[in-house]
Structures are given as C-alpha cells and as structure tokens.
Target: SGNH/GDSL hydrolase family protein
Amino acid sequence: MKLISFFRKNSFVLLLLAAFVLSDLLITAWDPMVTSRRFYKNDFTKTLYHHQWQDSGSVFYGNSSVTGAFVEKDSKSGLVEMGLSYGKLTDLKAILEQRLYHFEGPLVIGIDVHTMLDSLETDPTYQWFKPWYQPYVYTYRDYFRDSGTELARQLYKGAVELNRTQLLAYEPRWIDKELYFGHKTDAELKTKWNDYEQRFGWMNQRDYKDNLQALEWILQYAKDNQLPLRVVWMPWNKGYALPKYMPGLQEDVNRRLTAYQVPVLDLLQKYDPKYFHDLVHLSRREGAPVFTKEVDAWLLSLVKSSK
Model:
C-alpha cells in the first residue's frame, strides 16, 4: 500500500522522469552526433563516414600528424588513415576496450611529440569519453545548442517570413579532416615553438605515464590477439630544437617496443624543413607524398622479410 501511495503522490514527477529517460534513449539510438549532418563530427566519426561506415580493417592510427602525413588514396598498403585530432594512446586503448573498431593487422601507430602527453587537450566528443549514465543531450549540449539555434532560425524564416524553402534548411557540418597546405613563415614557426616550449618543454616521464601504461596495455592486447603492430616515429621539423622530454620518452617507448619485438620506423628527425607545413605537420603537397611512399616501402620490406 505504501508503494502505491508513493506512486500516486509522485506520479507527475515519475512520469516526467520516465519521459526524460525514454526521450534520451531514443536520441541515443538516433545518435545525431554521428548520423546527422546538422551536428559537428569528430575525426573518429569522419574516418567511419569516409569508409562507408566500415568499422574494421588495417589502420594507421595517430593524431593529426598522421592525418596530414599519410595520403591513404595514394598508398598501396591498404591502411585506413585514422588520424584523430589530439589522438593519444589512451584513446586507442579506449577504442580497443569498447570495441568501437575491429582492428585487423597490421595496426600501424604513429607517435609524434604530442601523442604521449597525458595533459594535452583533446576532443571531448569522442565516443569513448561519454559515461554510460550521462544523458546524451547533456554530454553534447554545446552542439545541440548550436544546431538548435540554427533550427529555430530556419523555422522562423519559414513560418514567420513565409520563406518555405528555408523551413528545414541547414548548413551541413564539415565532414573532412584538416589537412596542411603550404608553409608557415619563420616568425610563425618560432612563435609556435615558443608556445610548445612554454606548455610542454618542462615535462618529464611523470607527464606521460598514463600513455606509457596505455602502450603496455596495447602491446599485451596485440600479443594476446595476434594483432601485428608497427610503430612510426612521426617527423618533427628539425629546423627547431626537439622538445627536451623527447629523448627520454623515445627511449622509454622503444624499450617496451623492443621487448615485444615491434618493428619501428624512426622518421622523427629525418625530413628537411622544406617538407613541413609547421613543426609537426608535413605539407600535403611536398612532405606527405614522400612520407607515404617511405612508409609503404617499409611495410613492404617487413612483409618480404617475414617470408
């Protein structure tokens, strides 16, 4: 009787809660951050979109340095370019844990000067960051606000200004990844180097421990699942001093890779400045084709040596 009385007294609140939960479940099933062009798309979703939503394959994973350097359409390797803006190894670990993508060998991982930094800002809309208990609309509230404002504006044009063509019109959100054309000036590069030095130059092993742990997890996962791993040290513009933490970081990472017998291609300080757009991104026309051919040749050499 007490339970029935409780439901009667709180029926409105309970119905409101039920309506909220049901609507959130429906919106989650719709998943407009992925399915609707009205909403912003992160780089993981863009990768799936440009591969007809296929969620399995051989992959070249990394951050934007991979996006800029690896020209998938010109490569003979068959690798899917999965460069994620601010992508880190902790992100790759989450993708594997949550089975958001089914990796087939080889899995090539590009590591640049920022890939292992725990505190580096990232894209909060990546699917693996959303807690299961957090409402969908709340998680992506900024993007619902942006798209909702646009919808209200277009409804006004259609209903009040009687412009029916504008009633449900919208601007499709950008679906391509950022590429890097041309070359920054020396002054711009110096400014960026100073910015990196101020933000990251003082870092040491404590500041990439989470990503080192993620690397250990990935290495063991690959071994347990017989997933062939390859690692590329992504190019840095050697016209400027390498961040002070990099020699120690590279040593820590390489020691773990050696223990698991993972092949490594070290391009960290190989390319001339003329191939770069900035400090960490190769120029699409000058540097990226050279990089893509070199990675292809290296991967082919590994295949031949294994026969």
